[in-house]
Amino acid sequence: MLNYSYMDVHIPRGTSREAARQILTDHAEHGDWELDRLRLYPDGSRKVRLRRKIIRVVRTL
Q1: Which domain holds residue 10?
Q2: Residue at 59 is within a domain
Q3: Which among 12, 14, 20, 52 would be 20 to 30 A from 45, CA to CA?
Q4: How far apart, in Å, are the Cα atoms of 11 and each of 2, 49, 54, 60?
Q5: Residue 24 CB: number of other CB atoms within 10 A?
């Protein structure tokens, strides 16, 4: 079973689409985050949930 770590990012209204894309791209490239959910509110703000796999090391003898 896969376990994930989650991070919520709030992008305020007035942020351009290009700036929001750059923020999410930086998280993906430097933190190995992937998009789990994006919610766009009527006022223009966005709530983004990112996730990444938790890798557990199994001890071998």
Answers
A1: 4-53
A2: no
A3: 52
A4: 28, 11, 25, 43
A5: 19
